[in-house]
Amino acid sequence: MRSDASVQGTVPHTAAVRSSGARLFFKRLFKQKSLICMSVPFVIWIFVFKYVPLWGWMIAFQHYRPNMGMFDQEWVGWSQFRFLFEDDSFLRVIRNTFAMAVIKLVLGFVTAITLAVLLNELRIAMFKRTVQTISYLPHFISWVVAANIISTSLSIDGGIVNQVLMWLHLIDKPIMWLGVGHYFWGILGISEVWKDVGWNTIVYLAAMTMIDPSQYEAAEIDGAGRFQRILRVTLPGLRPVIVILLIMNLGSILETGFEPQYLMGNGMNADFSENLEIFVLKYGISMGNFSLATAAGIFKTVISFILLFSANHIAKRVGDERLF
Amino acid sequence: MYKRNRSPGDVIFDTANVLLLVLLAVITLYPFLNTLVVSLNDANDSIQGGLYLWPRAFSWDNYHYVFKEATIFHATLISILRTVIGTVVTVFCSAMVAYTISRPEFVLRKFVTIMFVLTMYLNGGLIPNYLLIRDLHMIGSFWVYVVPGIIGVFNMIVIRSFIEGLPEGIIESARMDGAGDFRTFMRIVLPLSLPALATVALFTGVFQWNSWFDVFLYNSQDVNLSTLQYELMKLLANSNSNSSMTSADAFANSANASANFVTPTSIRATMTIVASLPMIIVYPFLQKYFVKGMTLGGVKG
Amino acid sequence: MSGYQVSAGVLNCKCLQKRLTNYLERGTKHLDQKKLGTLALIVATAASLAACSGGNGNNGSGSSASSSESAGSGSPSASASASETASSSPAADKTPVTFTYFNANSQVPDIDSNKTEIGKALEDQTGVNFKMQFPVGDVNTKIGTMIASGDYPDVLAPDTAIDKILDAKAFIPLEDLIDQYGPNIKRVYEPYYNLMKQADGHIYFLPFSPVVGDYIPNPTIDQGAFFIQRRVLKEFNYPKIKTLDEYFDLIKKYNDAHKDDKLTGFTSLTYDWRTMGIFNPPMHLAGYPNDGDVIVDMQTHAADVYSNDDVTKRWLKKLNEVNNEGLYDQSSFVNNYDQYLAKISSGKVLGFFDYGWQADQAIQNIKKSGNDDLDYMPLPIVFDQNTKDQYLDPPSFVDNRGVGITTSAKDPVRIIQFFDNMLKEENQVMIQWGFKGETYEVNDKGRYYRTPEEIEMLKDNAKQQSIGFTYFNYSWPMYGGGSTLSDGNSFNAGRQPEVAQASFTEGDKLILSKYGVQTFSELFAKPDDRPWYPAWSISIEQGSPAEIFQQKSKDVKLKYFPKLVLAKPDQFDAIWNEYLDAFNKLDVKGFEDTLTKSIADKIAKVTGGSSGN
């Protein structure tokens, strides 16, 4: 349509160029009809299922009551956002959220990749498979169950962690781990690794299968040792997956979850355990305030997009990988 | 195949590695083992805590409680169906779109990619989603388990990065032979991406198997569409009220010490075992796709 | 009923939200739990089959005379006997019909009501069956989707989401239906009409707590009390203890004498929404019942937040002192509910404050072990010798929970007729006591009781479900807990002294005799009349400043209370002042004003109601 219009436009020269560009485009489009058939229906699908419901974002600017139509609601402008940003605890909550997120991101990547590499170096296939299977089991334990096990292990009445540390003479009396705010991020980070390291390893193991075995042989002929091969073959082979996952995870950095924080949180560590999701749970969802929850969702999306586009941009400049 | 003599450094590394991984195995096996123990222990006895590696008062009661209603078997069937159908559809569709956005010449590549990627960080909220499903007449239908998830964007991107890692020229040469995109995808790309597909199938399968919130939201009216996880959630909810409902007057009348006493804690442990066992049994069949590759690529034993 | 509920999916844990929600409604929880419990257990002897069929015949013959008579009497203490009970309109339609009922009050397996014995009996009388559904995930979510889509079940008990349902105009007004088809409904509920009317003058739902006849308190303590292990009392020959100082002195004395046993003097539960164990004692110690966050003055009826008052300081200072003597369980502030129950079950805890229904699992566990020394005794502890304790709940009418008929209902008339039929006295006996000869007996004086075998049989949840107690003894139009039947028997089986006595252990009987009482509640003072009670049931608008105050003040308390209790004694005052600063920054005054106003409104309605009678 636009090209037609420009053909009849006042600047014939540019119009002709544009028109031939457009023609070329449509020509290529036509040639790629099978690629289009393979993707466009799904674009329509995602539009319907993911973009259409975004009309719900309107309620972030309303005092929403579900019984009334979306357009009959009372409009309140930015007041939900103001409630969020002006709360005394907002800065603390954001600090906690980012701290937990960064710890989770770094620790999660490092441990999963390390475990994948270590598994890859094992000589006995049976042992490798067994360890790998076992390490993925905790993923199936819900946080309620896991948090209970963690609290029990950290307890001052005979919890295993205090027992071991006392036995090693690292401490001389039991420490109330969950009662000291400063420890919370660390406890959470370790718990998350413990629960999901095996699960997170899977994708790297799969990526390793794509590494051409001849590269290892070549490295070995060059006289590369164990660490050399890991550094020169395995890790570079994983790089594309690592970068892509990193970008995607950066985008969802504010999604730190609420279950472990909620279940292991208490008055004594609240200054460190409360994150954005718990804040929204307390003041949004549990008070039936869908508007606040939506406002927080929009805030998170904005942060996500900023991080996502920056990370993608940096990745493109530094190497070949990019998300889009 | 290379045969090398192991250097002393190798021996130290291998020993340390094995020890480290054994330690890891112990730490990660414990929660599961402990959960199994709690599920096999008398619920009332479990209240006292202090259960670690062996049941103190062995009992099958928790399992009897879980399996006492016949509905759970039908629900298991639905769970299997949604897991199998949902996983096959999602993996296939995600892989197909992943293939298209891996083709550098595809004119809509960037547009399609961004359209999908952004949705990972967008959420319209519960109510709009509910109304959408209702308006599409999918409430009370099996397809509500499959259709809203036919593309997993995260999975799609993972597959794409695998496809892009395929040796250069394989796809080109297929196309030289006159194969169309769909044919290339089916004949070349799919078989070569098996490790990625197995990974994504595992992610999707586990997600499908564990889902209950969509059942709660859309299909709770129809017991024929209930899934195992949802039935387990119900049992858990019931165990809560069993112990709390009776509580007040239980104390009054000491009448609470009922024979079929269950607690949320023990039911939760039992449902963890019941729900995850199938996943654990299926796992080795998927695992071989990436472990096989590992032996190829890593150290040869 | 959801706090405990939670999150169980192997991966998904959405229910957590629910827990949180529950915190906000923790007051509610007490009541619902208590009521449910009361009713549930009770299971008992019930209207005989003969009585049922009699009722049936009555219904069929439809004596409109008796109908007008009962309706005319219209007072809660109307002593209509079963045969006099009003019956609904003569030409009641009995063609089989099935309605849907979503009940958010409890979480039990879904069922068709006619699959239970009670439900079958009611279906025989009316032809009505209910497909009963209960929530699994978050109730607010479920109700939210109902409202957004406009699809409701025929009958709905929305529990705490009732404000949203009313807001959405999802219930139909009931007054005309009641006038036309509900003589029994009128008999039971009319005295409470003032409290039931919404701002627009209509009645949209029927609450669960209209007390009929004299009020009978619960013989055992399912509400707040200071619990103490029986071996402590035994060792010192069952002393009478009244004040907090005496209570802790006794624990200290016992602990000193048994240093090697590694006992815990006192523990508290502070986890998640279950914070009442540390927040609420000041109110009780000062001689007030559980009004939630406030103490309500008996004269002025002004609500006063007590968390920043001297009573709270006094309570925490005592705990600080106790902690300093090594008697307080420091892990109180990090333990979760399971760990707390485990701790009490271990039998090594000498004392704790809690609500009976919350500590019950652990106490039952100890009872099962059979060692009576380790069992607990609930005591009405107060600060001062001259304070009158007020732990027991006064009779109360909770006006913001109930069951209503929705705009989607196919046939409201049949439903209201079913409700009316249910409120006939013989049917009320059936839903609480069950069937005569099976779940209860009647002695020659006309008193209802249960045999030990019946009590034993009814410990089985499956049995309770198949009979239908689980489904019928709450969440329907009903006599409120503590009501008395026209023949003088207790409406709740659990409150019938004969039943209570029969279910006491030998140890229970012994310790009761040592204190010269028949039941545990006799040790507690009679509740004074508090027409507003309970203040925690006052509905606070969602997201309003008052609700935000509740959340924030909870956070502040949770943060400072551990510090205060665990501090070195010389630092206590400084931390207390720091706490006061933080607390008083919140809108305490606004919250108090909101509650004071609601209390005044409720009192006006109640007194208006009785004068109208």
Put the structure in a nutshell.
Chain A has 324 residues and is mainly alpha-helical. Chain A contains 15 helices and two strands. Chain C folds into two domains: 18-216 and 402-495, D-Maltodextrin-Binding Protein, domain 2; 224-391 and 530-603, Periplasmic binding protein-like II (D-Maltodextrin-Binding Protein, domain 2, 3-Layer(aba) Sandwich), CATH 3.40.190.
Task: Give your account of this protein's structure.
The complex is a heterotrimer of chains A (324), B (301) and C (613). Residues 1-12 of chain A have low confidence and may be disordered. The longest helix of chain A has 31 residues, at 90-120. Chain A has helices at residues 2-7, 12-31, 33-51, 79-86, 90-120, 125-136, 143-154, 160-167, 184-208, 213-221, 226-251, 259-264, 270-273, 276-283, 290-318, and strands at 62-63, 74-75. Chain A has three domains: 1-31, no CATH class; 37-77, no CATH class; 87-318, MetI-like (MetI-like fold). Chain A has a two-stranded antiparallel ribbon with strand order 1-2. Chain A is mainly alpha-helical. Chain B is built from 13 helices and no strands. Chain B has helices at residues 8-39, 43-46, 61-67, 71-100, 109-119, 126-135, 153-165, 170-176, 181-192, 194-210, 213-218, 228-253, 264-297. The relative contact order of chain C is 0.17. Chain C has 613 residues and is of the alpha/beta class. Chain C has helices spanning 16-24, 26-41, 49-61, 64-73, 117-126, 139-149, 162-167, 175-181, 183-189, 193-196, 230-235, 244-257, 276-279, 281-285, 310-324, 337-345, 356-369, 412-422, 425-433, 452-457, 461-467, 469-472, 497-502, 506-514, 545-566, 572-584, 588-612; strands at residues 97-103, 111-112, 128-133, 155-157, 224-229, 264-267, 294-296, 303-305, 349-355, 376-379, 404-405, 441-442, 448-449. Chain C is built from 27 helices and 13 strands.
